[in-house]
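Reading is simple: each integer encodes one residue's backbone shape. An example follows:

___
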Amino acid sequence: MTAPDTDSLPARTRATRRPDLRGQAPVVAVVALGGALGATARYALSLGWPAHPGQFPWATFWTNVVGCAVIGVFMVVITDVWAAHRLVRPFFGTGVLGGFTTFSTYTVDIQKLVDSGHPRTGLAYLAATLLAALTAVWLAVAVTRRVLKWRQP
């Protein structure tokens, strides 16, 4: 292979190299605010329902399942029903629900279960969370669309 002829490539302009960061500031701010709210809610849930070593981490499991179901409802509502403000999806979808759901903790929980001599529980948790989260988002989308269709005149 040969390198492309550099004379034939279009020259980059300053505008294409540097995005307008000022226009992104509101998006970054609402994602950060939403993320703080979602993570705080998740943390409060984990304090109220702590995972004990070697046991199934129910708080993280239900956090992810419920978060996925809410994502399903939210996405149907803002795409099929409501013309949302441009910051609603970044705030709630990416920020709040992204901070609330915790698939990174899910993977750490699996590793802890395996390392502590509970590989069956870790594998059950791995499979159950994946299946339940995907089912939750699918069911939430289907039920939300059915309810919205039923409510139409």
Q: What stands out?
A: The mean pLDDT is 88. Helices lie at 14-17, 21-48, 58-81, 88-100, 103-115, 119-151. The chain has six helices and no strands.
